[in-house]
Design goal:
single chain; 204 residues; alpha/beta; Rossmann fold; seven-stranded mixed β-sheet; two-stranded antiparallel sheet; 6 helices; 30% helix; 30% strand; globular
């Protein structure tokens, strides 16, 4: 099964709040975005936005240039349906982040919670990093969240790669200056916990 078919199946069969990564509000993500980009005109992309409510909170906090990208059309359609008329304020992209063509220097902030750790091949990770380097403006910011070293080894039936701050930053290289990192204990809808790592960098 292709990645696209896999994720369309997941989002078709499960309610938004019935997946392990669900969180009503991504407070850590929103806080980091506001920290690195207080100007509400900043161009922000949420990679793997799926049915996440981060887009709702970005709009509510006054951000005006938001793109949501996900491999699953089903997830994007669900997000649009929830937002209703507000969805017209968002730029939507259905694409595989390792293959899509993004405009050069298009974004001030690149955000990804729980996509990068699914990239288990070196080839896919290198393709992802090239996308970030091309699409994020120099002086812009990259916020990546993955499973930490104590996080799950699999998610949604797929293998994942777990990271600490040093190993995650090493995937991106010297042109991304690490500004900070933190671990977060995520409470799943099923009463279990998952360790997430957050790292944020500036593009040099």
């Amino acid at each position: 099964m292709s990645s696209r078919a896999h994720w369309n199946k997941i989002y078709s069969e499960k309610a938004p709040n019935a997946v392990s990564w669900y969180r009503a509000h991504l407070e850590t993500s929103l806080g980091l975005i506001e920290q690195v980009s207080p100007g509400r005109s900043s161009a922000i992309i949420d990679v793997g936005g799926g049915e996440s409510t981060l887009v709702d909170d970005l709009l509510a906090h006054g951000y005006k240039d938001v793109t949501v990208l996900d491999i699953s059309q089903t997830a994007i359609d669900g997000n649009k349906s929830r937002l209703g008329e507000l969805s017209k304020q968002i730029k939507w992209r259905v694409a595989d982040i390792t293959h899509v063509e993004l405009e050069a220097s298009a974004f001030d902030v690149w955000h990804d919670r729980a996509v990068f750790h699914f990239l288990t091949s070196l080839h896919d990770r290198a393709a992802y990093v090239r996308q970030v380097a091309r699409a994020t403006r120099r002086g812009g910011y990259v916020i990546i969240s993955t499973f930490g070293v104590e996080g799950p080894r699999k998610c949604s039936g797929l293998d994942v790669v777990r990271y600490d701050a040093e190993s995650l930053h090493s995937e991106f290289g010297v042109h991304f200056r690490l500004l900070g990192s933190s671990n977060e204990t995520h409470q799943t809808p099923f009463g279990t916990t998952q360790q997430f790592l957050y790292c944020y960098c500036r593009v040099e």
